[in-house]
From TrEMBL:
Signal sequence segment: 1-21
Swiss-Prot/TrEMBL keywords: Signal
Domain Peptidase S1 residues, every copy: 96-285
GO terms under biological process: proteolysis
The name this protein goes by in its record: Peptidase S1 domain-containing protein
InterPro entries cross-referenced by the UniProt entry: Peptidase_S1_PA, Peptidase_S1_PA_chymotrypsin, Trypsin_dom, TRYPSIN_HIS
Domain of life: Eukaryota
GO molecular function: serine-type endopeptidase activity
Length: 312
């Protein structure tokens, strides 16, 4: 079996997975006073949410699988470069959970309503079953300050039932309370394409640590990592098919987009994953992972108002 066949099998498994993981739960937030709640001081002092972590010796051996999946040459890869690292499309998301002010990364996704974003599900929903509250999105957050677009209240959350039960599909949708279509102001990432592995990508986020080169690691500025990602099977810390990169994005980077370039109109790129968890290695190295996206599930997540799933 050649390398391209291996990649095609993985993609087929993702499609099969789509059929069985379509249920989600949603929550509507009260956005009254949420902008006032997030003072400059609260945003500056918000704690970065820690990424889930696994141990290397409990993962499957992916060395051979990684070689088998290397089916695209440098000349065939998709160029992930963008004109600027300071995209309005990507920003910080602030929220409260268990009485703490916390922060992750989020971004705007292409949708007909123009007011839809994506972040990591583990930012919006805790292991104890608590939803995030007082949620705002600051597109283009830079140097510790919101952009001219300000603080955008998040009126709705959509979290996969599969994440709530078994921690897979670690991505969730957010709905913005914005007068007009926010994506017309920020731009948006396209979605719906599953590339062959490996693929050349860019990862955006607001980490406070990790090992992204030339990153301020202060959570106040957007950092970007560029390189190749491979699609792999995992059994620990959860059984999933995930994209892997040889870097630790860092706390606060959870929810950041993994983006490949493609043709217009989505010249900012197409989404392939969301920063999810990392696995530690010897000598301080780590690999970061993003669950392979279930596009059937994403279509349901971004539907609003909810009309085909449970609500509470």
């Amino acid at each position: 079996m050649n390398k391209k066949h291996i990649t095609h099998i993985l993609i087929l498994l993702i499609i099969i997975k789509n059929v069985f993981t379509q249920s989600i739960f949603t929550k509507t937030n009260n956005v009254e006073n949420v902008i006032d709640y997030w003072s400059q001081e609260k945003m500056s002092n918000a704690e970065p949410l820690l990424s889930p972590i696994g141990e290397l010796n409990k993962t499957t051996s992916n060395n051979e699988k990684g070689r088998l999946l290397s089916s695209v040459s440098d000349s065939d890869s998709i160029n992930p470069d963008v004109e600027s690292d300071n995209l309005l499309t990507v920003g910080k998301i602030f929220f409260t959970r268990s009485g703490k002010d916390l922060a992750c990364t989020a971004f705007v996704i292409d949708n007909s309503d123009g007011n839809t974003g994506i972040t990591a599900a583990h930012c919006l929903y805790s292991r104890e079953g608590e939803y995030a509250k007082n949620v705002i999105f600051c597109p283009g957050y830079n140097n510790g300050n919101p952009s001219a677009l300000g603080k955008i209240p998040v009126i709705g959350l959509s979290v996969p039932k599969s994440f709530m039960k078994s921690r897979v599909d670690d991505y969730a949708a957010i709905k913005f309370d914005y007068p007009g279509k926010l994506q017309q102001q920020t731009g948006s990432f396209g979605w719906g394409l599953t590339p062959p592995s490996p693929v050349n990508i860019a990862i955006f986020g607001y980490p406070y640590n990790g090992n992204i080169p030339n990153c301020s690691k202060d959570g106040q500025n957007c950092c970007v990592w560029r390189g190749y990602s491979t699609l792999e099977f995992l059994e620990f810390p959860k059984t999933t098919i995930a994209w892997k990169v040889p870097v630790h994005i860092g706390s606060g980077g959870s929810g950041g987009p993994w983006v490949m370039k493609n043709n217009l109109p989505h010249d900012l790129g197409y989404l392939i994953g969301v920063t999810d968890f990392y696995v530690g290695q010897k000598k301080g190295k780590a690999n970061e992972y993003a669950d392979a996206l279930n596009f059937t599930l994403i279509r349901i997540l971004i539907s609003w108002p909810p009309n085909q799933f449970s609500k509470f």
